[in-house]
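Sharing a chain and its predicted structure for anyone who wants a worked example. Both blocks are below, sequence first, tokens second.
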Amino acid sequence: MLVVKPPVPHDETCRLETLISLDILDTTAEERFDRITRLAKRLFGVSIALVSLVDANRQWFKSKQGLDATETPRDISFCGHAILQDEVFTISDACRDKRFCDNPLVTSEPMIRFYAGCPISARNGSKLGTLCLIDQAPRTLDPEEHRILRDLAGMVEDEIAAIDLATMDDLTGLSNRRGFDLLSKHALATCARLKKPASLLYIDLDRFKDINDQFGHESGDRILRETGQILSSVFRDSDVLARVGGDEFCVLLVGANERDVSFALQRLADAVDARNREPGNVCAISYSVGIACAESDVPASIDDLARAADGEMYKHKFGKRNTA
């Protein structure tokens, strides 16, 4: 049997982090998604309609009409191919397509012949999965049907965006505290399984209240946005970034040893200094930072790391005040 496995997207790390941050995998059925798949199934006259989310090793169905299975392996998924596209991915007859003719989803239940999947994206552009149509008879979609499927996929994206807003900080575009808790727990557990270290940075802006009082909240918001942009530019895609309080930020550096942390902190200091030297920046960015490390062979919780890093941050802040 020859099955063509779907390639891994170039943004796979960010894509999976985005999917995990939504906390949607393995949740119960919801009417807001089910009404879309019911509508798709009825409009197109197909036997199966799904909202499929592509996880690391599986595709999981948030909503399903006409199918009993809740997930299938990613290696044999049609949706794994569809998320590599920008437009609707269509297979008119899987039995005549060399990529899928030996696929167990074609040769056995659900006996796929026709497949059409429209990628569904998060607010950051990551393709999370598809709204897909499946039937046991070959067929094609005309241009108007393509538009309808894209419109329905847009409805799914709107519902996912509503979930995303509960885990994202609108001002900075980083995760909020809830999103950080979800992502960091997963990342820390992965580090523990792979016996890799991790480090948590707790960053607090200095004299932020004074900036709001002296220059106004608009200036304060601009400082927060620029801090978020600096953090995003300095740290890696695999690191977990969040604004966890009014002027507080957290960064979980995944697989980072002491030397990696030192280099990252230097990059941060250089980026902030470069920003502060730019003409027209009346309000300088200044920050205090605390560090807590999880050793590769010692289990640690994100809550313990956060408390430890927070304590170290306050020591840093008070130390600066005493020497000022």
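Comments welcome. The chain is about 45% helix and 20% strand.
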